[in-house]
Structures are given as structure tokens and as C-alpha cells.
Amino acid sequence: MPPKANDLKDTGDEAKASKALPTDAIHPSVTLLRASIPFSGAKLHRDTHDWKKWEHNFRMFTTLNHLTHYVFSPYTYRPHVEPRAFSNYTENLTMAVAALQSTVDDSLHDLIDYEKGVRRSYEALRDHCQSAGPICQVAIIRQALSTYCSPSEPLVATANNICTLIDTAFDMGAITRDLFKCIALLNSLSDKSYESIQSTIPARYPTPPPKRHIPRPKS
Fold first, then answer.
1. Disordered: where is this region (predicted)?
2. Given phi > 0 = left and psi -120 to 50 = alpha, else beta, which region is 133?
3. CB–CB of 210/128 below 8 Å?
4. Residue-by-residue pLDDT tens, the chain, 219 positions
5. What are the angstrom distances between the C-alpha of 154 and each of 118, 143, 151, 165, 204?
6. Are 54 and 44 in contact (CB under 8 A)?
């Protein structure tokens, strides 16, 4: 007599269960994690684009909470061999997305996608902050050029601030000949009588908002 469909299903489940590691049920290789140490840096904001400083603080945050592998080099688990470890790993991935969301400003929450996961959400944040456009580059480079040493502040601190601003501008894209022309032209308007002209440039060319994620309807 041929086996019934339910019998085949049970046989398959038993075969999968027999492949599971005997230690997985009691001592799974992956345990549930909790982000017990809060993020101590400044949250990443849509208009600041201080990516390098935020990334440094974020990597320290993920390291202290054992989330580094979930964001930057995720593991690969076979659910039939380690079912409990795989379940814990899946929950940890979701928790990692929430941890990432807690480190950015509300203006960037649209780039956090729980369906795509923490790695793609992190890459979306990086791409957004490093492709802000020439107008933001001009503003940052002008800020670097207008930063001066002061007896009240250590020279090293001022130098680090200038270098950080320059690095941020270069991370947004190539510094072209036309961009330098734009910088020079804006610097020529530094007199107070041209403040109205300077203020209209950011207003006319604001930083583009992040692309909104529109979830697809489930079939």
C-alpha cells in the first residue's frame, strides 16, 4: 500500500530532525542578543552628513553589543542542522535593524527597511550620506576654509576638525574643477552685504530627502 501524503511529510520532517545537531536544542551555537549598551554618539541626521564620525561610533556600538557580524559580515546557517540557532539568528537580525534605527535621526527612518535587513539598510544610509551633491560639498568645504585656529582651542583639535570636514566633502563625490569654481564664487560673496544671496543657495538647492520605501502588497 503506498504511503499517504501525511506519511511522506512526517517522514521528511523526521529526516530533517535526524540531521539536527544534538547540542542545538540545549546549547545552540547562537543565543538571543539584547542591545544592552546604548548608542553614545550623535544620531546621524539627513542634513549633517557626518558619516565618518557616526560610522566610527556605530561600529563601536555594534562591537559592544556583539552585533558586528550581523551588520558587516553575516553568518550562514542551515535551519535543518541548527534549527534553534537559526531561529535565534533570525531574531537577532531583526533586533540589529532596530538597533541601527536607534542610532539615526527620524529624518532617516525611511531608509530603514526591516524586510531587506540590517545590511541593506546600513548601505542605504551610507549611499544617501555620501551622495548628497555638490551644494552640500560646497557648504562643507567653505566651513573647513572658514575654520581658524584659536588660542582657546588646541591646534590639534582645530586641525582634526578641518581634516574631518574635508574628508566628509570628498566622501560625497569627486571634487571637480566646476566645484572649485563654485567654492571660489561663494567665498567671494563673504561680505555681509551679500548674505541674502548666500542664504538663497541652500534654499534653492536643499539636500534631497531620502527615498521613501513603499512596501509591496502581499499577494
1. 1-21, 200-219
2. left
3. yes
4. 433 434 434 444 544 545 778 888 888 888 899 889 999 999 998 776 678 789 999 999 999 999 998 998 877 777 888 899 999 999 999 999 999 999 999 989 999 999 999 999 999 998 888 776 676 777 788 888 889 999 999 999 999 989 988 888 887 777 788 877 877 777 777 777 777 766 665 444 444 444 444 444 444
5. 39, 18, 7, 17, 37
6. yes
Contact predicate 213/110, CB 8 Å: yes
Burial letters for 169-197: b for 16+ Cβ neighbours within 10 Å, e otherwise? bebbeeeeeebeebbeebeeeeeeeeeee
- CA pair distance 70, 188, nearest whole angstrom: 48
Q: In Å, what is the CA distance from 89 to each residue of 27, 71, 92, 94, 199?
A: 14, 12, 5, 9, 50
Q: String of b and e for 5-22 (b: at least 16 CB within 10 Å)? A: eeeeeeeeeeeeeeebee
How many residues does this entry show for the chain? 219
Cell numbers placing 99: 538597533
Whole-angstrom distance, CA of residue 64 vs CA of residue 84: 24
Rg, Å, the chain Cα set: 25
